[in-house]
Predict the structure.
Amino acid sequence: MSASAITMMVIGIVIIWGGLIASVSHAVKVARKY
């Protein structure tokens, strides 16, 4: 494993988790409105 491959893996994981957290928080905000 080269350093660049590990970096890309970490960035990918952060993007995936960031998207999940953003979608969940958005769903919670929408649910609270109604």
